């Protein structure tokens, strides 16, 4: 496939309605995963994972029986699969979140899975409870498929970057709160309590950032960003981090966010998207590790 097919253009304005609807749908599914899995450090039990078709919860259990929920962003179905051959499909199409929520929970009930989740979305302004959300109701299959293609290529490069770190490192996973793909490295040292972020309980952030991190990811844009961006930050931010020289050309430190930013367009249009993105991930990690004096000799594979 050509670069513009594997790394498609996806400005926020071109799919805003679908973006917002998918965000709410992933929150519903993510909350189901959170309700059916044991707590893991930094909420890793709540995340979704990239697949050859879209996103998945991976395996969950209800009364000892495994099941999973998957977004198929090629054939455009939300698929609920339970062990012993039970499968239900909900078409992904333009309809209100309230209807999706009702259908998904009733479909789970029909499979013998009876759950209650906190139905208010997080990390968004003026979150509408899912059962009352008739605002978000747009689904464009072509845009959703482009979103998936960007995820697959980014996840592949993130996985390569992840492989050189032998200390504690997260999976490459999708956080439905902020709607971003991320991978996080840890120094092994405790961090001060996180001060919190708007529209999210503080205890969530305290657990997420209980230890010192260098984290990078992909966010699909919004606010001042008209296109997706790659980001990289350190918590707590060490002195000198923001002044580091990072790669490639076009990467910069965004003071308002406290993060290094590399526009997705810079990667997408580069002759070698992989090398462009890898240079950003590595140079910003080194900025964090050097500034904070990480024990790199025991954390990295050379």
Assembly status: single chain
**Structure annotation, total helices:** 8
Q: How many strands, which pairing sense, and closed or not: the largest β-sheet?
A: 6 strands, antiparallel
Distance between the termini: 32 Å
Low-confidence stretches: none
Radius of gyration: 19 Å
What structural class do the secondary elements suggest? alpha+beta
Domains, number:
2
User: Helix fraction?
Assistant: 25-40%
Strand content: 15-25%
User: What is the number of strand segments?
Assistant: 12
User: What overall geometry do the principal axes of the alpha carbons give?
Assistant: globular
Mean of the pLDDT scores?
97
* SSE string: HHEEEEEEHHEEHEEEEHHH
Protein name: Ava_C0101 and related proteins
Pfam families: DUF5996
InterPro entries: DUF5996
């Amino acid at each position: 496939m050509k670069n513009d097919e594997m790394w498609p253009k996806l400005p926020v304005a071109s799919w805003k309605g679908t973006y917002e609807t998918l965000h709410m749908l992933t929150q519903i599914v993510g909350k189901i995963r959170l309700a059916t899995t044991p707590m893991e450090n930094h909420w890793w039990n709540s995340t979704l994972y990239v697949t050859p078709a879209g996103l998945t919860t991976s395996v969950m259990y209800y009364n000892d029986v495994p099941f999973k929920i998957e977004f198929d962003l090629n054939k455009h179905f939300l698929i609920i699969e339970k062990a012993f051959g039970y499968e239900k499909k909900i078409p992904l199409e333009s309809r209100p979140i309230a209807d999706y929520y009702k259908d998904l929970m009733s479909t789970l009930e029909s499979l013998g899975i009876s759950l209650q989740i906190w139905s208010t979305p997080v990390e968004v302004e003026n979150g509408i409870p899912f059962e009352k959300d008739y605002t978000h109701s747009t689904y464009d299959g072509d845009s959703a498929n482009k979103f998936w293609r960007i995820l697959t290529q980014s996840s592949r490069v993130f996985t390569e970057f992840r492989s050189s770190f032998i200390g504690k490192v997260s999976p490459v996973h999708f956080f439905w709160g902020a709607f971003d793909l991320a991978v996080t490295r840890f120094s092994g040292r405790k961090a001060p309590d996180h001060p919190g972020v708007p529209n999210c309980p503080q205890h969530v952030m305290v657990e997420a950032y209980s230890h010192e991190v260098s984290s990078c990811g992909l966010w699909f844009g919004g606010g001042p960003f008209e296109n997706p961006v790659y980001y990289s930050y350190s918590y707590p931010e060490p002195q000198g981090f923001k002044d580091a020289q990072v790669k490639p050309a076009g990467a910069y430190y965004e003071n308002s966010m406290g993060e290094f930013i590399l526009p997705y367009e810079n990667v997408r249009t580069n002759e070698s998207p992989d090398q462009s993105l890898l240079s950003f991930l590595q140079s910003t990690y080194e900025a964090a590790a050097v500034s904070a004096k990480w024990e790199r000799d025991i954390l990295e594979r050379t």
